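Hi V.,

You were right to ask for the full record rather than a summary. Here it is.
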Amino acid sequence: MLDDTYTTPASPAPQALRPRVYAPDSVDGPRPVLTGKVTHDHRPNGVPPVDPQRPNGYIDFDAYDASEVREPPITPERVRELNRPDERFGYRPRSLMFSPVLEAMSKNCGLILLHFEREHMRRGGAHNGELGGSYRAVKKSVHLHERDIGPALAEAIALGLIYQGPKGFGMCWLKRCDGTPAPHWWERFKTYRAAKAVSKAAIDSARDPKREAQRARCLAKLLERKRAPENSSGH
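Predicted structure:
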């Protein structure tokens, strides 16, 4: 007598299988980009083996041995190499970027800093403390008017951003060309109000009273000339 019952054969024990990722060659979409350096391959020419069970030339990336994939070690030298810009650059330290001095300084003071940073870069970054700051050089570099160069330079010195040495000017966040450490004089300002008061006092003290009076007279004459046609047309 035959037994109609059917016994399902025992399934084999599950194994740890890695997922297979198939990439079409050109029809169904772009191939995934592999990261890391593959040091082991089943084929000598470096091409992933083709799976004959898949149509359209699907490539079986599971044939790679994952244990042979090695990422380059992350070292401080490697980080500096990856973050290095493609061209020459200048920098400002974090303590300066978050200082209230940069918020309190005037626009002309910022142009003075830009001039010295450009001058420092033109001279190869090795002459801080011996940078030129003549009126002609500043006017040519950042197009600042001559009457504004003196007050802006005095403001930058009062805020501890620039210093004047026996051979020229220097920026206070960079060490001197002779190896002297950077003074970091701007750090004595802890609040915006204190920095703004020093900035305004330096600008007022550096202005020439005679030149300011002459400037005021010129502005008054200019306003009178503009009002003259209006008065004549009104009559």
